[in-house]
Amino acid sequence: MKRYGRRLAWLAVALAALGAWHAWPRSDGPHAEAHRSHPHAVEPSSAGWTATDPGTTRLAGRETILVLGSDKRPKDARGNADVLLVASLDDTHRRIELLSIPRDTQVAFPDGRYRKINEALAIGGPEETCMLVERLIGLPIDHYAILRFDALVRMVDRIGGLDIEVPRDMDYRTGDQVYGVIHLRKGRHHLNGEQALQFVRYRHDALGDIGRTVRQQAFLVALKDQLLRPQTLPRLPEVAIDAWRMIDTDMSLADLSRLAARAPRYQAYQTVHTTLPGSFHDPDPAIPGDLSYWVVNPIEARYVAERFFSDGEVPARIIQDPRETRTWLPPAARAAQPSDGRSTPA
């Protein structure tokens, strides 16, 4: 992976983003694709990834990291990535940009099958996950970082907890032997590490995983604000060392230490966040092996990502009707269509 020494300065957002994941017990392993003729599939161009995909476009003045939250348990060889979040420190526009990719997003894997993108970590590791994300959004990933349960708890406790608005009462038993109970009350609270983990894990509301990405983004903003408070800044070098010990990343300790030293500049940066738009696909009982997916239009995914990271533009609607997802066109292409929907002759 490329390293850009003069811009390795995104510790605050990296540490914030590292904490935003949900690790949910899963019984379904890698599965054969149920929709091999998906109309919006992007065919894979290689079976591996060691550098920026040639089909991506680099935007100047930024460093971008893919944050993965793993659901790996002690007996698992590997876990799925139940949260995927693209975090970018944009020095050109003085912004911190956070793009959530729902874990059930359907993508083409290098073997030609279609699966949920969260399975990439278990199948091909962080390198394959980076490759699939790059092809999905059309922008390069510079680094990756993977975090698990106990790391989040220790990290939040180390910085003194977080102030977060809990939007509703949250009660659920996850089935895990450790951190197995979610119990939070509606309102603004100062959460410790275990409570913060409960906040980012909860998904039992009407919008499921999509509603959870909104809460995770709120968590990221709260964590970034706490990291950049005057009383926390002097402790960032220690936090950087802890983070390096707790996460699986392609960054060195020296990289994270430099980020800690440069973190104060980001106090004035605007934070923008959104989720990749798409539509729900419910399993079709007539199709063997069909599963629930978050379906995205690849043309729209790249358009939304480019506008978000270039201009800070957030899509007007995240949850679409399936037909809207299938037929989505960029504004210029829509403008070229006559009222009956047919393309205008050249």
Automatic annotation (TrEMBL):
Keywords, in A-Z order: Signal
Stated name of the protein: LCP family protein
Protein family according to the UniProt entry: Belongs to the LytR/CpsA/Psr (LCP) family.
Coiled-coil intervals, chain numbering: none
Domain Cell envelope-related transcriptional attenuator: 80-227
Residue span of region Disordered: 28-54, 327-346
Residues in the signal sequence: 1-22
